[in-house]
Design brief:
This protein is an alpha/beta fold and 477 residues long. Helix content is 36%, strand content 13%. The structure holds 6-O-phosphono-beta-D-galactopyranose.
Length: 477
């Protein structure tokens, strides 16, 4: 296959190439310049792990990769790769340390001013997640997070402040990271302090309702304050296949998919779908809907963004057990290989999910997370440079991007692609540093050792070429 001039690969000229991170996984400086504690600061073991009373040193996120102090060097490296967009999040507790404060923290606001300016210096558009797995801890402890209606008010205040402050600097916004993940990770995703085992479905779905109303309010405010911006929802995409053609498996798959589609359906159509009303009826759930909520939900998103790492399977056969990587349910697919963390690798699943979402919604789609978490070995190459020969990562990303082109050829409107963890960071699910995703290696280890120096991996040069050729350097098998 032609290396540099592949005629079969057509990404639109406007395609937004870049990388993605989240504040809590990179910034560190967890208590500097007036920042309050967030749910992440007391979660040393990751998204599903136990929480601690206070931040403890074993929590690698407290230092992260020290992006708070080194962002200039990092943005320069992103620019060297040719990024057109950089997805990061604003740490809510940097702006409102307790979450229910009336006055924002100026130093927190200044940090993001400077970060966004630095991006623009290189022509990189910031794509900003308003809430990425880090509710201010006070809102979690005092209010039980999104179970409490007042979170809508606090979030609305926060987004109003940041929309006004960054209206000339940020034109792409996302309301909640992986909003559907609240169903599996209520503390991390929804700041819900009640332990998951004790949380009732009633409270869980009431929290979901509050997030959906808040998300719609953010859409409305964004359209009013920054009319030339685009704002989207963000979902964890987990395409699910029936394990067998047994109709029971097919219906079980439909139910599983509905659980996730529910979030997209409300964001795009502005109303609760019938299958969800049935679910509520049959599970004795009565959502308290306040006057004005239904009108608010009609503020629908401009685009849909999602993360994609893997697909899974569903079955009603009780003898089939879930695999280690399937923390969000489902069972492994016997036709697929898995990463070292048990996440099954399925590039075609990305084409499939792009088509399914586009068929359903006819809205532009943005892939804002995709990548391979792997153990990397830092070596010294023949030129005497420290680097990582991460051909496995290149292969993963190449194969997924080829499927993105397939979807574009299918007629899907894809706005862009920001691969996850463009610079190594602390993992969300396991809180490890050795689960690396980056094009840039960060010298920091799970025991907290390391210089925090940055090194370009082989994939750094590969991605730079992909962006420079607008995808034509990708290899089709
Ligand atoms: C998504 C989260 C990210 C990120 C990614 C990779 O669910 O939005 O924050 O971390 O998954 O997961 P992990 O870090 O667990 O490998």
């Amino acid at each position: 296959m032609n290396k540099d001039n592949n005629p079969t690969l057509h990404f639109p000229d406007s395609f937004l190439w870049g990388g993605a991170v989240a504040a809590n996984q990179i910034e560190g400086a967890y208590n500097e310049d007036g920042k309050g504690l967030s749910t992440q600061d007391v979660s040393p073991k990751g998204i599903m792990g136990p929480i601690t009373e206070y931040p403890t040193e074993e929590n690698l996120k407290l230092v992260g990769i020290d992006f708070y102090h080194r962002y200039k060097e990092d943005v320069k490296l992103f620019a060297e790769m040719g990024f057109k967009v950089f997805r990061t999040s604003i740490a809510w507790s940097r702006i409102f340390p307790n979450g229910d404060d009336l006055v924002p923290n100026e130093k927190g606001l200044q940090f993001y001013d400077e970060l966004f300016d630095e991006c623009h210096k290189y022509g990189i558009e910031p794509l900003v997640t308003l809430s990425h797995y880090e509710t201010p801890l006070h809102l979690s402890k005092q209010y039980n997070g999104w179970v409490n209606r007042r979170l809508v008010e606090f979030y609305t205040r926060y987004v109003t402040v940041v929309f006004n402050r960054y209206k000339d600097k940020v034109k792409y916004w996302l309301t909640f990271n992986e909003i559907n993940s609240i169903l599996e990770a209520p503390f991390m995703s929804g700041g819900i302090y009640t332990p998951k085992e004790q949380l009732t479905k009633q409270d869980l779905y009431q929290a979901v309702h509050h997030e959906l109303v808040a998300s719609a309010a953010a859409v409305k405010l964004c359209h009013e304050i920054i009319p030339d911006a685009k704002i989207g929802c963000m979902m964890l995409a987990l395409p699910t296949y029936p394990l067998t053609p047994n109709p029971n498996d097919v219906i079980a798959t439909m139910h599983y998919e509905h659980k996730n589609y529910f979030f997209g359906d409300v964001h795009v159509r502005g109303v609760y779908p019938g299958y969800m009303k049935r679910y509520f009826r049959e599970h004795g759930i009565t959502i308290e809907i306040e006057p004005g909520d239904e009108e608010m939900l009609l503020n629908t998103v401009d685009f849909i963004s999602f993360s994609y790492y893997m697909s899974n399977c569903e079955t009603t056969d009780p003898s089939v057990v879930s695999g280690p990587g399937n923390i969000f349910g489902g069972v492994p697919n016997p036709h697929l290989e898995a990463s070292e963390w048990g996440w099954q690798i399925d590039p075609q699943g990305l084409r499939y999910v792009l088509n399914m979402l586009y068929d359903r919604y006819q809205k532009p789609l943005f892939i804002v997370e995709n990548g391979l978490g792997a153990v990397d070995e830092l070596i010294v190459n023949d030129a005497g440079e420290k680097t990582v020969e991460d051909d496995y990562r290149i292969q993963y990303l190449n194969d997924h991007l080829v499927q993105v082109v397939e979807a574009i050829e299918d007629g899907v409107d894809v706005m862009g692609y920001t691969s996850w963890g463009c610079i190594d960071l602390v993992s969300a699910s396991s809180a490890q540093l050795k689960k690396r995703y980056g094009y840039i290696y960060v010298d920091r280890n799970d025991d907290g050792s390391g210089t925090l120096e940055r090194y370009r991996k082989k994939s750094f040069h590969w991605y730079k070429q992909v962006i420079a050729t607008n995808g034509k350097s990708l290899r089709v098998k």
